[in-house]
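Cast an eye over my tokenised protein here and flag anything odd:

===
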Amino acid sequence: MSSFKKLSPFYNLAIFYFSVSFILRIVLIFHPITQSSFNFLESLKIFGLGLLSDFFVFLIASVFLWLYLIFLSESKYNKPYGYIILGFLGLLLLYVASGKSIFDEYGGALPRIVLIFIGLKTILFTAFLLLPKYRTKLRFWLYSFVVFLYVLLILQNGLSEYFFWNEFGVKYNFIAVNYLIYTNEVIGNIMQSYPVIPLFSALFLVSGIVTYFIVKRSKNYLNEIPSFTEKVKISGVYWLLFVISLAAIPTLAKTENSKNVFVNELQSNGLYKFYLAFENNKLDYFKFYKTLPNQEAFSILKKQFPTISGENTIQKISSDSVESHKNVVLITIESLSADFMKTYGNQENITPFLDSLSQKSLQFTNLYAAGNRTVRGLEAVTLCLPPTAGESVVKREDNKNKFSTGSVFKQKGYNVKFMYGGDAFFDNMQDFYSGNGYQIVDKSSFSPEEITFSNVWGVCDEDMYNKAIKVMNAEAGQNKPFFNHIMTVSNHRPFTYPNNKIDIPGDIKSRDGGVKYTDYALKKFFDMARKQPWFNNTVFVIVADHCASSAGKTELPLDKYRIPAFIYTPNEKPEKCNKLMSQIDLMPTLFGLLHFDYDSKFFGQDVLKPSYKPRAFIATYQDLGLIKDNVLTILSPKQEVKQFALRLNSKDSVSSDFQVEYDEMPLKKHNMDLVNETISYYQSASFLLKEKKYQK
């Protein structure tokens, strides 16, 4: 066997992996969400450096293939070695099965996984040892199975990257890591969103066909198993390339530095992006971001909060009017982009009720979501602080007893509840809200007769609102005001909802249908609420948790963070607030309307006060942005700072108050005042959380 043929299992699988990666990049380039065109140099980076990165990633991923192939041998079954090895495997199996092995110290599923692996290894070795006549066939089918697994995983990853791009417009990121944790909801979402049976049937069929050809081209490795010396040479070459790959992959990742985010994403390797997201789910601001001396950061912050002193944000909020202890219902609507509403330019009439209600409310026309996930929206309206790097506070271990909107309401004698139509375990909502004094009403609180329709995310919005009305009627009889935070679920892929409710059938799974049904259910809620004795003494706060999509040409595309928000108070005169503001300002503004006196730690402010200085915070899990004075300042890991001048892209059909699209033009010279102000916000928020100074 020639030296080249000895590597045939590796290079045949590698060719297949590169082919899938190449085709995937072509498909993603022409995907509707890829709102960009690419010049020659950009295309060269995408395909040249991208495929080079794929080569090195494949070398790392093929370590298990190397491990399998290197232990293929005939001599290990000779007497007495075969029986010695079998005895060793048996003892090892008994040790792991005893429940007192080193693996049991780690707990979880690890002991079971190791037990299954060693058990299978023992069974297979026994078969190879005791059935020498069938050894060749067994080895062939086992080798075919290993190749099949690699082929299947390569194809599965390609499909997963496509569907992830279809949802978010990027390769794997922090969200993909989260999806591994909440497998029930995610797998259920996939099952209900896509034709899974035909898709996986085709996947297995194609994997089988590809495996057949790869095995046919590489089975010479089995026919002439390399000698010990040859295996040492193969291993030497492999491990040399393996070590080179460890250095090459992050080096190539540094070349993903185009101003066009789509170029960087298409150039990147999805598996390495997943690894980075897994490693960076906790980002220490002080290690990865540009900082100032703490005293200086809080000194700059004091310009925004004149009454604070030292390293804190404690402010005395007072009103010259009598406090109003009206009931408050906060509704955070899943994935409701501003441009779904008519006032922001949508012509599809998919939010008729919200369009109508906004005209009767205090409407905030220029408000930005803090992030692009539900947990960021919940964090923003609950904790009212900027979105710090890494995972949302909602999902961190240290997420309890925080200063929150709920704690302010509790100080004022309110009953405080969080209501969610799904399982509150998802995204750690149960732990976060119960740990901050909220009572939880979720799907587990529903009786079977209270559920008329549900999907993987939970009961439909109508069922949630019916339940909410029952809860609020009971609360109204307790002679205490109530604050109820309701999180909707229906406007989420797979966009299924009860049929015969709106003019878009629920089983066609369209986003427009999800939005329109969400709007319809909200109207039904208000129709029911108006009939209740507590309605006229209740304030309704309605805001999206985040936009429907976060994909764009830049790190933080402004139009993908613009969300609708308004406060409806029965019998109050409607108003508009056109000031630039953040999602974190909504509840402090409500407290101002209720004339609450309280000691605040919030970074969010009452935007109706004359002292308010317009700005907004927008972020991903690692890019932290501040919008102010028509400039977007972005802090990124490795102490990077970028600034963009914002130029409005006006649409003639949209009122000036509701324009959402901006060009973001890089500034050659940084505005250091804005850079330092951005640092002061994010650094001080990170400091207070890290030092446990944001407790109630």
Summary: The mean pLDDT is 92. The first strand starts at residue 315 and ends at 317. The two ends are 72 Å apart (CA to CA).
